[in-house]
Amino acid sequence: MTARPHPALIALTIAVYLFLIGPLIIVFGAALSDTSYLTFPPQGLTLRWFENIFEVAAFRRTIVTSLQIAFLATGIALLIGIPAAYALNRHRIQLPSWLSTLFVLPILIPEIVIGFSLLRSVAVDAGLPIFPTLLIGHTILVLPYVIRVISASLAGFDFSIEEAAISLGSPPAKTFFTIVLPNVRSGVIVAFILAFITSINDVSVSLFLTGPGISTLPIQILAHVEQFFDPTIASVSVLLMLLTVAVMAIVERTLGLTFLAK
Amino acid sequence: MQTILKRFAGWSLSTPATLVILLFLVVPVAITIATTFADEGGVLAPYLTFFSSGFRRTVLWRTIEISLATTAISLVIGFLAAYVVSKAPDRLKSLLIIAAVFPLLTGVVVRSFAWLIILGREGILNSFLLWTGIADQPFAMLYTQWSVVVAMVYLFVPLMILTLVGVLENIPDDVVQASASLGATPAATFRQVIFPLAVPGLIVGAVLVFTGSFTAYATPQLLGGDRQMVMGTLMHQRAMVAFDWVGASTVATIMVVITIAVVLLMSRTARRLNPMAA
What we know:
The structure holds 2 protein chains of 2 kinds.
Chain A: H1 7-31, H2 48-55, H3 57-90, H4 98-108, H5 111-125, H6 130-155, H7 159-167, H8 172-183, H9 185-201, H10 217-227, H11 232-254
Chain B: H1 2-35, H2 45-52, H3 54-87, H4 90-105, H5 108-119, H6 124-132, H7 145-169, H8 173-181, H9 186-214, H10 218-223, H11 231-241, H12 245-273
Helix pairs in contact in B: 2-12, 3-7, 3-9, 4-7, 5-7, 7-9, 8-9, 9-12, 11-12
């Protein structure tokens, strides 16, 4: 047992945590306030700002777009990311070393630059419509998360099990789906969840990839805040926080949240 | 034959992801960078335009200042908090980790918006100061450099805590115990054993925070507005308001160069300073 930290350090840590959680509680309170402006503590309690979200057409539309993009981008990222992560673990020696560098590039290049470059080259020069361009942007955004999480779970997988199945006559593709994939199931779930929440919350990639009638929820929030200062945004924020809670519950049940601190 | 098959399998499985990144990341970003060197005005003309504009130099300098301040503050409070978290009993520790993960997984827009409610002219902080009588008129806290820094520190402290808790937990207990049994005070152990072992982790955290704040858009836009323009908001303004694509690409290239330079430089430093590697 090591010595307890100095009381001053403990006091500082409590202050840091109040600083971390306080603002989110304030948003929660502001969403319930029965006033037409943002205030805390709430004056009178109402849920009408939550109803208001769905009365504003722009919010309805962008929520749908955000969900579509998040599901599709995550799906595509898993589809191409799982085989890549498998190849990186199983066939590492046969693959060039720059490949793993390539797969972290989306993290290295500033997101806002990715969005801008896609607008220029893919949407304007190549003439691809905005929705597929936005989808490509989000796929690239979440791909490194998928590859990293799946690689981490594959690192703990004993590939001799797979080899045993193959040497006993099971076709490689079938072996992958019946032996390898079920063993990294929790990794796949966590990869899905992290990619999904990253896509839903993204601003910087989406920023340039909006067009007539197509925008994402965070971009719509930014636009709304500049014109109105009513509690609608606070209630949208609460919805997003509830989504975060759901995400955390799923991660906790699969790999455990401490996985994220590694 | 077997190895050729294996090589083929490895290649074919990684090809889709490789192609997507090459085609939709490497090529578009390379084009963005290339256009800044192919301007009609001359090879470096867009950069001359950028650096000869006092306004844009101010924006670059302001972005560096905000990012350095954010990094320094996040490092200090993140490290101290992570130290306490890593020493907490197991149940409390998982609770504290959850309390750091929650804001991290909550979007940037939501977290920046929270500070809009707090720091606004009729915001919570001003109402509180007026109510207690500390101030007799509201302060203009929003749209200042410090409002951006505060919100940015808020954004990155959870990331710093989570990175450093992992690092601090990996410090072997026997090293700490050896130091104590050789007569070092807890403060000396902290300064001479724990801190040097945490330096590589501190550098990783610092790089994440610096590059994140240097390229941020939503937080400076909401809390700094046009008055505190930074590289991200300048790039957006150049592209979408002024339709100056070369200007926006120049800002983008400067961002990419600084980000990659910081990452390479600091990861080299982290490797050199790692006492466990020596």
